[in-house]
Amino acid sequence: MADYVQQRKNMVESQVRPSDVTDRRIMRAMLEVPREKFVPTALKPLAYMDRQIGLTKAGRGGEPRGLLEPRVLAKMVQLAEIGAGDVVLDVGCGPGYSAAILGRLAETVVALESDAELGAMAAEVLPNLGFDNAAVVSGPLESGFAGEGPYDAIFVGGRIEEMPEGLLDQLKDGGRLVAVRGTPVHARAVIWRRIGANFDVQEAFEAAAPLLPGFAKAKSFAL
């Protein structure tokens, strides 16, 4: 029988801690949240590997969805500077693992998912694990979920090519949005900070993540 507790320790010690993740709350959350619960039985042996885990096929302008590489997730969460009293929107929550990690740090998490299968998995697993501060909602990822906003932080769990203005508008003044922006060949984690009506945008570190549906750059047509 697999020792998932030891695998979680190994994940934190060999993947997360050496990747400049210094927030002990994040490491504690990743030690406590059972990542193996968020993948099908056949993929449980891969749950703690240092790689993305695909759970779906590509669709609607996106790429196969699933779990981000643990170190990328941890570094992005740290970049978002989640506070204990924060309300967080998790865009593209997938099977719910990111929402679980965020739920250990924030007061409330709104977990948005457009894929019906992934959303159903998140809606089942999160309450079964006792995450009553994470609510799973359905809708287009690029539209966000304004009804529960504005948010202290928005975590976009994948890669984008363009950032919809409507999503940034759902941030509170002083709020942070974190996403991976770029191409499959070159992409970086980026943080947007709202300062009144303006946004300070800073690139942080190189990261690989699947392109989320709804965030592809509009194609231009030449006559």
Walk me through this protein's architecture:
This protein has about 220 residues and is of the alpha/beta class. It has a single domain (about 5-205), classed as Vaccinia Virus protein VP39 (Rossmann fold, 3-Layer(aba) Sandwich). Helices cover about 25% and strands about 25% of the residues. α5 links the parallel β4 (about 110-115) and β5. α1 packs antiparallel against α2 (about 25-30) and α2 crosses α4 (about 95-105). It is globular, with a radius of gyration of 16 Å. The termini are far apart.
Task: Describe the largest sheet.
Answer: 7 strands, mixed
**Category by helix and strand content:** alpha/beta
Q: Can you count the beta strands? A: 9
Measured by DSSP, the beta-strand proportion falls in 25-35%
Mean pLDDT: 93
User: What strand line-up does the widest sheet have?
Assistant: 5-4-3-6-7-8-9
Count of discrete alpha- or pi-helical segments spanning 4 or more residues: 6
Name the CATH class: Alpha Beta
Shape: globular
What is the helix/strand order?
Answer: HHEEHEHEHEEHEEE
CATH superfamily: Vaccinia Virus protein VP39
The CATH topology name reads: Rossmann fold
Overall helicity: 25-40%
From the structure above, extract its key features.
two-stranded antiparallel ribbon; 223 residues; 6 helices; single chain; 26% helix; Rossmann fold; seven-stranded mixed sheet; 27% strand; 9 strands; alpha/beta
